[in-house]
Amino acid sequence: MKALITGASSGIGRDMAYYLASLGYDLYLVARRKEKLEEIKRKVNTKVTIISLDLTKEKNVFKLHQELQKKNMDILINNAGFGLFGKFYKTDLERELEMIDLNIKAYHILTKLFLIDFIKRKSGYILNVCSSAGFLIGPNLSTYYATKNYITKLTLAINEELKNSQSHVSISALCPGPVSTEFNKVAHGEFKIKEMPSKKVAKYAIDKMFQKKLIIVPGWSVKLGLFLNRFIPLKLSMYLTSKIQKRI
User: Which of 34, 94, 122, 146 has the most beta carbons within 10 angstroms of its beta carbon?
Assistant: First the structure.
């Protein structure tokens, strides 16, 4: 059994790696920080293949699939991504374009290519690490929310296609609220609501993925918030969202 995890050097991706290793999966871990992946390799008892790649570069995304296509992955977890706090007219354009390349293009390419492989083999799991942001509009974190809306809606559409064709392949969207990871440090901001431990989110997500749950939302407070958001005016939703996140 083999699992590919992007963005595996820290946070949710790292903790998913540990959990899947405990279940006996061989791991193919992708991130730029090779030393962080080496640390995971030393701590688990399964086979770990380290792939140091920058997935903001489109050619590297295609290279990753080409290298692993014949390895017959059982699981693809698209987790690599980052955010950028700040007002849209002030945030750095080049950094935002890198975010779009990683949060959207890398997910899109890997999902499509591995989905084709999985459909041919009539088995496989894809878990796209989206966000509760995928159902919201995010002032002060606008580009990040937009990228997560894209991936969330893409994942839901693919799931419906698979369902209609009675495929045995499963695709799920993990949509947590704030999680205790390096996200805030990289994005130069913070949330004003409690963060969930990444280890707890990782285990919950993997367990629900194996149950073929479509939308995976860890935590009752986040579930309740997304449910209530359906019934409030859009302007109020945007106002409330803007008040829980800020640049630091």
Answer: 146
Residue 63's pLDDT is 98
Q: Which residues, including other chains, have CB under 8 Å from residue 80's CB and lie 6 or more apart?
A: 6, 7, 13, 30, 31, 55, 102, 106
172 DSSP assignment: E
What is the identity of the amino acid at 89?
Y
For the question of residue 28 being annotated catalytic, the response is no
Annotated active-site residue in 144, 145, 150, 204: 144
- Cα 121 from chain centre: 24
Annotated catalytic residue within 25, 125, 148, 208: 148
Cβ neighbour number for residue 241 with a 10 Å cutoff:
20
CA angle 49/99/86 to nearest 5° reads 135
Where does the pLDDT of residue 25 fall: very low under 50, low under 70, confident under 90, or very high at 90 and above?
very high
Please state at what angle helix 34-43 crosses helix 11-22, rounded to 10 degrees. Answer: 30
The maximal CA–CA distance of the chain, rounded, in angstroms, is 51
Considering the entire predicted model, what is its pTM?
0.93
148 is catalytic: yes
**Over the stretch 176-193, which tens digit does the pLDDT of each residue have?**
988 877 676 666 666 667
| CA–CA separation, 19 and 15 (whole Å) | 6
